């Protein structure tokens, strides 16, 4: 049995107000996480994905990290990057383990048993979570199969 866990990141820039904050282009998002994670955590592997939804693959040893810890590392890196913004956004990392059968054979798609994490930038985490009905959607789910990381500014 392998000691590795696979996590895929997507990106949701949920800021509509007129401001000086711009979404990260797809490749910049991928390069940002790959560079920062591999530099600070050499036992974690990253690569860019060729998938319409998923942007970054992260492979980490499950004996060293919980999925929530890796997602929190990602959220903190993005929060640190945005500290120079005129208005600093809230950062969310919303994760869930895929339990449904695979719909694609592509190596860049999320597979059953792997973690999918949406990295979100918003000026109001509470409003974003309410709009997507997070509590209702996750109410009956096993707490070992989902997580929510919130970094509020």
Structural write-up:
With 153 residues, the protein is of the alpha+beta class. The chain has one domain (4-151). The protein is 27% helix and 27% strand. The protein has 4 helices and 6 strands. The chain has helices spanning 26-40, 67-81, 125-131, 134-138; strands at residues 4-13, 45-48, 56-61, 90-97, 115-122, 146-151. A hairpin with a 7-residue loop joins β2 (45-48) and β3. The protein starts with a strand and ends with a strand.
Present the secondary structure layout.
Blueprint: E1 4-13, H1 26-40, E2 45-48, E3 56-61, H2 67-81, E4 90-97, E5 115-122, H3 125-131, H4 134-138, E6 146-151
Parallel strand pairs: 1-5
Antiparallel strand pairs: 1-3, 2-3, 4-5, 4-6
Could you give a short description of this structure?
By secondary structure, this protein is of the alpha+beta class.
Measured distance between first and last alpha carbons: 41 Å
Dominant shape? globular
- In total, how many domains does the architecture comprise? 1
- Which parts are unreliable, with pLDDT below 50 for 5 consecutive residues or more? none
Helical content band: 25-40%
Overall mean pLDDT: 92
In total, how many beta strands?
A: 6
Strand order of the largest sheet: 2-3-1-5-4-6
Rounded Rg: 15 Å
Biggest sheet statistics: 6 strands, mixed
SSE order: EHEEHEEHHE
Number of helices: 4
Q: What share of residues are in beta strands?
A: 25-35%
Question: Structural class of the helices, strands and pairings?
Answer: alpha+beta
């Amino acid at each position: 049995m392998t000691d590795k866990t696979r996590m895929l990141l997507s990106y949701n820039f949920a800021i509509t107000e007129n401001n000086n904050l711009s979404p990260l282009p797809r490749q910049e998002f991928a390069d940002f996480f790959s560079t920062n994670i591999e530099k600070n955590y050499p036992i974690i592997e990253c690569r860019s994905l060729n998938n319409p939804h998923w942007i970054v693959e992260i492979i980490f040893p499950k004996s060293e990290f919980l999925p929530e810890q890796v997602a929190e590392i990602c959220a903190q890196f993005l929060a640190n990057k945005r500290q120079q913004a005129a208005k600093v956004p809230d950062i969310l990392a919303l994760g869930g383990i895929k339990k449904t059968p695979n719909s694609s054979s592509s190596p860049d798609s999320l597979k059953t048993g792997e973690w999918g994490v949406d990295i979100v930038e918003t000026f109001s985490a509470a409003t974003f979570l309410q709009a997507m009905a997070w509590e209702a959607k996750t109410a009956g789910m096993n707490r070992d199969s989902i997580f929510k990381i919130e970094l509020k500014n």
